[in-house]
């Protein structure tokens, strides 16, 4: 596998994503291959343009400008599945949900739930650690207008599938928003989980228990921690806390 100037293995096609994901032996390998992915031309062009033009407030910073890997240990019993990185958040800092208002919300909530060692996430070297939770996104590159296409979602899905396969203790998936929900269900179906018919619809507080090849998995729906939801009060801190507290209780049980 060819490597780019920074040493990351380069993947240029959807078929290459499938091969690269399937052959990744551990989460570190998945993370490394995600960072070198160039399989979606529109997303590559956008993330790199943003990294070059920058926002005025960050004009002195070097943007990451790559896909964003997941965060969290391999023994996690809880997964948090988001939509995609923010153009001036993860795409700038190089860490998922880091450097933007959405990250302020999710990491503060994880801290209150006992899943993070601090409530803030501003940079990759800020000392943040999470435990018993793996944080991932359905699409790994920042998309224009925060809106990946279905094709981009599907191209990225093997990374998500392999990441979940490499979490042997996984028991709960907290899904932030309808896009992540629609991306996760086919991944789980392909992995052998039995989905109800009709397929469960997304909603805040929705709870669905699935049976899979490695045991049960409970899906918990939550409105996304986007500013559109948090600024308007559609999602409040107590609402988000309740979902994460339920996740912790299910994982412990």
- Our count of helices gives 9
Approximately how much beta-strand content do the residues carry? 5-15%
Structural class: alpha/beta
Q: What is the C-alpha radius of gyration, as a whole number of Å?
A: 17 Å
* Mean pLDDT rating: 97
Count of distinct strands: 5
Question: Number of domains in the coordinates?
Answer: 1
- Fraction of helical residues: 25-40%
Biggest sheet statistics:
5 strands, mixed
The helix/strand series, from N terminus to C terminus, equals HHHEHHEHEHEEHH
Query: What oligomeric arrangement do these chains adopt?
Result: single chain
Strand order of the largest sheet: 2-1-3-5-4
- At CATH level 2, the architecture is 3-Layer(aba) Sandwich
Q: State the end-to-end CA separation.
A: 42 Å
CATH-defined topology: Uracil-DNA Glycosylase, subunit E
Unreliable spans? none
Assign an overall shape.
globular
Main CATH class: Alpha Beta
What can be said about this structure in brief?
The chain has nine helices and five strands.
Structure description:
Helices cover 38% and strands 11% of the residues. It is of the alpha/beta class. It has one domain: 3-Layer(aba) Sandwich (Uracil-DNA Glycosylase, subunit E), CATH 3.40.470. A hairpin with a 2-residue loop joins strand 4 and strand 5. Helix 1 packs parallel to helix 6, helix 5 packs across helix 9 and helix 6 (150-165) packs across helix 7.
